[in-house]
Amino acid sequence: MEMEQQLEWNEAQKIVINVDLVSAAKQHLQFLATIDRNRWLNEGPALDIAIYRYYSCWLPLLARHSDCPFFEGPLVVPLDCEWVWHCHRLNPIRYKTDCEQLYGRILDNHNIVSSVKGITQMETEETWKHLYPNEPYDLDSTRTLSDNDPAQILKSEKCSNYDLVSAVKRQSPFFYQVSRSHMTSEVYLEGAVARYKGFLHLIRRIKERSIESFSVPTYDIDLIWHTHQLHPISYCKDLVDIMGKVLNHDDTDSDRTKGKKLDTGFSGTTKLWEEMYGLRYWRAGAMYRGNTPSPLRIFPYPSNPLSKKEDTVHADHKIIHLPEMKVLEVMLEIIGIRNLPEGYKGGFFVSFSKSQPDRIFNAKKKLTIFSESGVKQVAYFQCEPCGHLLLELMSQSSHDLLISKSVEVIGSTALSLEDLTCPASQLTMEKWLEVVPSSKIEALEPISIRVAVSVTTPSAAPYVFHMVCSRAFSRISCFFTFRGRIQYAKNWTRVIDDAGDEIISLQMRNSKKSKRMSDSTLQKELISINKAGETHTLAKLVGKEWMLLDSQWSLQFQTCSVDDGYLLELVGGSRIVKFFPGQKLDYEHKHCAKRRNQDDFMTAIEFSSEHPYGRALALLDLKCGVINVKEEWLLLPGIITAFIIGDILRKEGYSSVLSIGNNLKYNNTSEETNACMNRATEVMERFAKGNDEIMAKVEENSGGCGSGGRFCIWYDRNHFHGAG
């Protein structure tokens, strides 16, 4: 950072904001999470009624309480009214105008508490009941099915003509973009507040220099900006002090097409930011994640509030126990190079990798250097939060007309991920790193490369396993074997992790009890051997239901057509996990041009009071025999379920999995059998070649309210991460 750029950044950090934005942002995220569990408030009659209650009940109550408090404690706003109020305040100029027209002043949130904070609301409810005896304090979702026409009621009430239905529609997808765990980290939010001040100062300078620009934030900045606007009096006062006027928040444009307003605005903001501050604008964990995943349900899943979740993890520890692994997101860019000796010609680039084995990122990739290529190229990847990133400066030159190119390693440098994740680093670094020459190079000053890197705070990494079968004539083969190979039916299936370590071995067999029965229907059981050599019976087939782990869990195939479209249901205690065909919710595929067949996958979705619309917990890759599990309690039940599905698939084909609930035995056509054999052959060839890594370069929108440019995402196929 040059001296002039450092002075600009220092000037930005002098901005005074009269709100504790870090604490307020955490409360903001908590509220958005609650709204996400109550999506029925986002549209239809429920939203119409909420808007009616907001104008006719909440705002008048707030105005009267502000003039003369009804009681000493804080006023607790009902959830539906708070959501409408939230969206109204996110158009700060319109909210200010509407309040002044309706009540003669801005109605602030001072001494107002969100209903999600758990503070007693008895006094507020009593006041509400006294003022509005015919209107309940809490809006029940069942009321939305009544015959009342709130649209007609609104016409006769004191209200603004601002389109709050559209405002809610624009804001409802925002939570998905800021819902990952690092967004609640103190150190990450502190960095976001500093960048928000930089964003305001940038707009101030643009205004002073009369530059035509549409400033577009990244999502960390946008979260803090929204949080500031939720304190309307402070926001108006602070912004007038900073730039002489209230800064409006334009969220009406959502077209991310290349060349449109958001795209060009984000590119322009990136350019102006990096020129003014000498710092990178893009930040790990703050970029556009893609569209909100397609919902599985329109209405929330009914839950039993009286049931308590039973902890089955400790019992599973006796069979398998795996240490927790952490992961972080890394954004890396090479800005420039200096002090190259004379005589070096050709193109320069930087190769990067981890200096020690990494289960998540074990590749070697390359980046161009911005000062050399003139093109912004950014690597965005995930890795373990330990060790060093090794950076090698490379030179590539052409020799003859055949354009054969030789690559020379000039030198290397490294940066510590532990240093990057410590609080003092603020999760970001941009500086010149000295390159240690790989051979004797005569230079007056050491060669250096300017490196910009940002990271998120570490979070729990998913558990990833591979299922493989030992074969008599092959060292390792895919779990989904050829049909008809009954001579290998007694072989064990090995479950291994990414390091190649065996976790457990599984085998399906006919139970001893069924062999003594005269009934022709054989009962099956699944047995295992763990690393300690202990044998356990993991599951038994009882009728058409699988009982898992001493009946702690039950697995049933769907026997009739349902709107949800799930195929299997796993139930343990109060936990309900449904398996859907394809990649769903967080696993939904968005960016790669070569999209795989959705028949290759199943997604495990948990439904609960905390996640009434479903939470993606595991992905089963049926084609490659890979299991990705997010939660420890689902490890063993998930592995067992995957094995049962795989056992059916390799014997009966995929069509039997789709209809297994109606009948447990099917006769495939020869065409289906050949398709299954071809699938198994393809998978076996992949495992034999060891082609476990792929690199994808995608065009992705990157800004908060806007979009960005091209950058690279490298990801390991086995971890299903990368293109957000």
Strand content: 15-25%
Q: List low-confidence stretches.
A: 472-478, 480-489, 661-702, 706-724
Q: Number of DSSP strands?
A: 27
With helices defined by DSSP (H or I, 4 residues minimum), what is the helix count? 20
Note down, in words, how this protein is organized:
The protein is an alpha+beta fold and 724 residues long. The protein folds into three domains: 160 residues, no CATH class; 135 residues, Immunoglobulin-like; 229 residues, no CATH class. Helix content is 31%, strand content 24%. It has 20 helices and 27 strands. A twelve-stranded antiparallel β-barrel has the order 13-15-16-17-18-19-20-21-22-23-24-25. Strands 3, 6, 9, 11, 12, 26 and 27 form a seven-stranded mixed β-sheet that branches. Strands 5-4-7-8-10 form a five-stranded antiparallel β-sheet. A hairpin with a 4-residue loop joins strand 24 and strand 25. It is flat.
Provide a brief overview of the structure.
This protein is α+β, with helices and mostly antiparallel strands and 724 residues long.
